[in-house]
Amino acid sequence: GAVVSQHPSWVICKSGTSVKIECRSLDFQATTMFWYRQFPKQSLMLMATSNEGSKATYEQGVEKDKFLINHASLTLSTLTVTSAHPEDSSFYICSARKQLNTEAFFGQGTRLTVV
Amino acid sequence: KQEVTQIPAALSVPEGENLVLNCSFTDSAIYNLQWFRQDPGKGLTSLLLIQSSQREQTSGRLNASLDKSSGRSTLYIAASQPGDSATYLCASFIMIKAAGNKLTFGGGTRVLVKP
Asked: Which of B34, B51, B95 is opposite residue A104, by nearest beta carbon?
């Protein structure tokens, strides 16, 4: 199957700082990538859809100024958590698919802890 | 709005027993449905993808069925092994022009296979 790589796998940062998470499609081009957030023992919640070369589409309730998404190339999307606070601590996962009718592949996830 | 439900939320079986995991969805106009496995603190591994026109998919000990009319999918895992212990998630994919393409996840079923 296709490979989606996410980096870093875990990060600890101080409150008020910003953190960038990278999502790469290693062996295919992805015009669209998806960012999810997962709280402990809960399912995945879609945060935003990242579109190459254009603005991301955010789900209702997700602050676009806090969660900055950049999709500068067909193989890379980044999520920046700005001015992080402890309540932003969570597991963030990205996803991409080659085509709409094919499987969605997920990155390994990034555990963010804000202290 | 699509809602995906998985029952039971948790399941514990002795090794060798067959597993039956249920997934139901409210909007039958799905494009496809995908089953994933998630190990603690990890990303999602795609298990099976069923297109809306298909009734079932098989991969090794795994078999997934899809009944769009009743809004149900079932994942069968034959002859369970301790290594099958994980959380299993189903997700329906809907293409809506106005709202964008969305993958909606169920809450997951936590499976424990006891040796």
From this structure: B34
In the block, tokens 């296979």 appear at: B113
Give the contacts of A1 (CB within 8 A, at least 6 positions apart): A103, A105, B46
Give the position of tokens 């992805």.
A30
Residue A113 burial (CB count, 10 A) = 13
Q: How many residues does chain B have?
A: 115
Best CA proximity match to B19, nearest among B62, B72, B71, B65: B62
**CB < 8 Å from B in window 69-108 of A:** 91, 93, 95, 100-108
B64-94 confidence digits (pLDDT tens): 999 999 999 999 999 999 999 999 999 999 8
Q: What's the whole-number mean pLDDT along residues B22-44?
A: 93
Query: Please, are residues B24 and B15 in contact by the beta-carbon 8 Å criterion?
Result: no
Per-residue pLDDT of chain A (115 residues; tens, 9 = 90+): 678 999 999 999 999 999 999 999 998 888 889 999 999 888 899 999 988 888 899 999 999 999 999 988 889 999 999 999 999 999 999 999 877 667 889 999 999 999 9
Q: How many CB atoms lie within 10 A of CB A114?
A: 20
Which residues of B, range 79-108, sit inside 8 Å of A by Cβ?
89, 91, 93, 95, 100-108
Closest CA to B40 of B86, B109, B107: B86
